[in-house]
Structure formats: C-alpha cells, structure tokens
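Box S2. Input/output pair 1.
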Amino acid sequence: MRSRNSLHTLLHSTKKVAGLLVLVFTMGAFVAAQEESTIYNFQARYDGAEPGGLIADSSGNLYGATYQGGGSHNCGGNGTAPIGCGTIFELIAPTQSGGHWTETLLYVLRGGTTDGVGPSSPLVFDKAGNLYGSTIYGGAAGLGTIFQLTPPAQQGRAWTETVLYSFGSAEGGGPRGLAIDTEGNLYGEANGADTDGQIFELSPPSITGGPWTFSSLYTFTGTNGDDPNGGLVLDPRGNLYGATFIGGTNNYGLVFELVKPATQGGTWSENVLYNFTGINGDGAQPFGGVIFHGGNHLYGTTAYGGDEIGDGTVFELSPGSNGWTETTLFQFDRNTVGFRPEAGVVFDHQGNLYSTTTFAAFNGGEVFQLAAPAKQGAPWAFTLLYDFDCTTGGGCSPLSTPVNKGNRLYGTAYSGGTAGAGFVYGIIP
C-alpha cells in the first residue's frame, strides 16, 4: 500500500544528499492579497486523490492526473476501501462567470502488468488532441509506463487508453516530465538502470498501430548531473533543456542542454549551462525544471540554497558570448515568506513570474508573484497571493507549477481539502 506522500518521498529519495537542512516550521502573520477559489475537491476513492500538475486547452478546460484513487483494487486498499491506481480527469470550465466547474473522469488506471500505476507528471497534448502521460509504477515490469488517451469520436463517450511503452530493467523506471515536439516525438526523464538517470525519446510508428520506438538519448553519471526532475523544454532547433536535482561539480544540481545531433540517429551531447553552488546566496537542488521566457532566457526555482537557512531561490539564466550567466532573482526566508519552492515557474503577459512554495506560515505552502522590475538589474518585487492553511481543511503542498489561463492562475494542492485528498484552485493575481 502506498502512503499519501509516497510520490513526494519517491522523487526526493531517489538520491540522498548529506547535509540537507531539517525543516523548521514557523508561524507568522500573512495577509493574502487575493482570494482563492476552490474549483474541485477530490474525494479520495473513486474520483482520485493527490493531484499533480495541470494543463489547459484553448477553451480553458483543465486536464490532469491523480496519483491515487479511481477505485481499482489492484493497488491495495485502506481497510475495505481501494486506494486506486490513479485517474486522468478533465475539469470543464463554466459557461458563465462564477459558475461551477464540472469534473469528468477520462480514464481510471487499473494497474497490474497491462496498465500503469501512479500518474505523476503533467499531461501533454498532440496536434490531434490526444493526451499523453506517464506513470511511476505498473506495466509489464512494474517500472512505469507511457500512455496515450484518444478522445472519442462523439462527445460524451469514453476516451481510449493505449499503453505505448512499459519500462523494463534495461531502461530503469519511474518515467516523468514529458515534452512533445511538432512531429509527435515524446521526450522524458527516468531513473536509469544502474545510472544516475537518463533522458529518453519515444517515437511514433510510421504505420498506424505499430509499436513506438524507445531511445535512450543521454545517461547521467553524477558529475554531469544526477536525478533529472521537473520536466523538459524544447527550443526551436529541437534541443532539450532541463535540470537535475543533485549531481554536477558541487553535487547541488545543475541546468543542462542536450544538443540534438545534426543527423538522425546521431549522438546527443550535453552542455552544462550552470552548476549550483548553494553558497553566497546561490541556489541548490532545482526540482521544478526550467522554462524559456523573454526569448532565450531560462527561469526556474531551487528547493534549497539562497539565504543562510537555505530556504530556496528563484533564478534566471542568460546566454552570452562567454557562456550562461546565473542571476538569483529572489531568496526565500521562512521568517518573512514561504519557503522550499519545488514547482517550476510561469509568466503572464506583463512579464511577472508566478510559482509556489511547499511550506509557509501554516505549513500549507503559498502561491506568490515576482513582479519584473522596470529597470534591468533592479530587485524583483515579491507579493504573496495566497497562503494555504492545512489546519482548517485548506490545501497542503502545492507542489505543481501553476497554469496561467485567461488572466487567472490554476493549480493543485497535493493533499488537504474537504476529504484530505487534494484539490484544484483558481486565483486571480
């Protein structure tokens, strides 16, 4: 039976680093600048529990996965109640402002050797409207799967799931962090077999219904990165960018580029863009990946490092003629704001940055904004948007990166809510 925080524990315990700071929770007075609205409370059994990251379609509907729930008995139980192997859901936006969102279960994972267990990362769409995702466990060897969900020909009918690939001992396991290119190739991260992680590609067949092709693009060995997490992003040339939680020169993680070979089937090569130091205000151990903004600048968070307590940072990487330059945009301090940012970041049209912290005044985490300065090099201005409260049925652990859609932020709390199974929230910045 998997515990409520088993996904969080799994992803952090893949590599143990000496010297991690013990979390000390502090209470303080926080005033939220915006009101949070709860869009949906998960009920733990049949509709799902422990939601991960969201994506949105052009109509503003939200899609995501829950790590547990769904009613399947194949993944153990809590007394007579099944824990479930996870679900894929859609939240349909209301037609009128202030209306109710409608949850639809698109698929319930069944586990066993023929289906996945524990979908964790955000889903991705292809151009045809198919959804793709990954599971940490399940499949032929119990090491995880990549799956496709095909929408029905008629609205209201069932979506069709196809397991595209089951990970075996040769590939490692725990696939996550999918990205998709314009040709429909999928890219992701995994715990490599007897390695420190790998980046893989899954290519669609040339004939409809044929098998997808798995390729290991790059293997980490510690000094060049260890434990890739947080997802991947592509540039226009098809190069991949991401971060590793530890490894690198200082064993505090790094940001990397994987350069696509000039000829098909060639070897991908790694450029280490930045090694985190964890000292003198620099961050350590990025967990939420990176994104592009403002052309070719990369942004992300580190869960540790920064101030003398090591409560985490927000950073920017800027390319130049002599390589990439890292700038710490903000250092978290649990005595004044939340701490331990583990999600990635998202921007609005004005260039303001948004993300979450795992902990805050009420131990529940917070959603924050960093406003871009008018003058280059000036400080970014921090604004607390919402402080979650675990003690009164509020959400806990907003681990996923928010989605910015229609001038509103949407995200999930991994636990908490009316049933303690997590919920989906909306905030107007």
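Box S3. Input/output pair 2.
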Amino acid sequence: MLRQGEFFGAPVVARELGDFALSIWSYDAATSIPWHAHESAYVTFVVRGAYREHLRDETRSCSTRAIVTHAPGEVHADDFSAAATCLSIECNRRSDYDEMSVVMQSASASAIGDRIIAELRRHDVFSPMVIEGLMLEMFAEAARSRVPTIEPHWLRGVRAMIAANFDARLTLTALAREANVHPTHLARAFRRHDGRTIGEAIRQSRVEKAKERIVAGDALCNVALECGFADQSHLTRSFRRITGMTPAEFRRVNKHPKR
C-alpha cells in the first residue's frame, strides 16, 4: 500500500490545495509499475501519452485526455508503451466518491482536467475552493458515466465498418446512410456511448493498424499509405497525438529480432 503522496515516475510539480494533493508526473516509454494500491481515493488525468491499467479482473486502456478515477485500496499495475505525462489528484478526506472506479473519455471531463491543471499553475488563496468545485464536477461526470444506457443496435455495425475500412475516406454522412440514421443522431449517439467522436475513432483505428505494420518492419512511408494517412508526416502527427511518441520511437521500443 502506497502512503499519501507516493507515486512512481518523475515528479514535475506538486502542491497541496485544501483537501487535495495535486501533482504532475512524467513516465518514460516502456515503464512498468508493479502491483500496488493507494491509501486515498485519487484521480489520474492523462495529459499526454497512454497506458494500460491492470486490475484483478480487467484491463482498461487509459489514453490521452482520459480521466481515471480510483477507489482507495484498489490494487492495480500499469504499463506505459509510450512516454506519458499525467496529473494525479489525491483526496485527503473521506467522501461520497471514495468507491468510484471508472475511465472517462469525454470533452466535458477532459475540460475539467484542463481547468484543474490551470488552477495548479496559477494557485492563489481561492484555489482550494476552486479545486473542490471542479472535483465535484468531475465526480458528477463519473457518476453519470456509470448510469447504464441502452446502446442502439446499429452502433455496433458502425464500429465494425470503421474497423474494416480504416484506410478508406469515411464520412459521417456515409456512415449514417449505412446505419439508416441521421448524421447528427449518429454523431451524438457515438460520442455518448464511446466517449469520443467518430473522427477520433477513425484516427485511433488507423493508428492501431499502423502499430501492427510498424512492428512488422514495414517502411513508414508504406505504413502511412496502407493505413489511410495522406503521407508520412500525417502519420507521424496522428501517431504522436494518440501514443505520445513518433512511429520511429514506437518501433525502437517494440523492436523484435527478425526470424
């Protein structure tokens, strides 16, 4: 069990504001954090990069701009395939959200994370009260995300189409036509159930396929064309945005000996 204030990684900045301890941490690519738990409930905002968090009964993906809430004593381990920067917020008192454990990826939740970072940087006498309000907003978002909603049957087909046609020039209108729904309805439903836009899903699908081709040893210029990117520069920009590293850096980290 880690005591309050103990984390892995390299600290960038740390400060206590009222009932919350806020800190920003930097993690190198290929970092593995062994099984551990924290005494207090805490929140992680993935500012840059991504990692996978292993719980006793599941593994959850924590990508850029995701917010991850943790209940006190929750045992977990983390693997960073790319360099990452994370904001950690520890709750120094018992509260109604101590049992929350969820991954959120939504514009509203990420905006709260941005505001907390801004408050950490420009802290003043009002900051503890501001942080308290922002944390209440964040856990309200977490509670709302746990309320089950019925997913429309056609949404699975849209996801399958995106995965199968990652290299095609997909449009919202074309996807909506295939699903037999209005484009606006598709956009709203997709974001509500997936926590991301369709454009973000398409980009993620292309990057995931690019990872496979990069590890296989394909030339980056060919990977870009095969995975639906305009050119190698476009691949690099999108790849870095999602993974926190360039394709070349990812290849070095995941290099396997040739058979």
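Caption for Box S3: Residues 154-253 form a domain with the Arc Repressor Mutant, subunit A fold (CATH 1.10.10.60). The chain has a mean pLDDT of 85.
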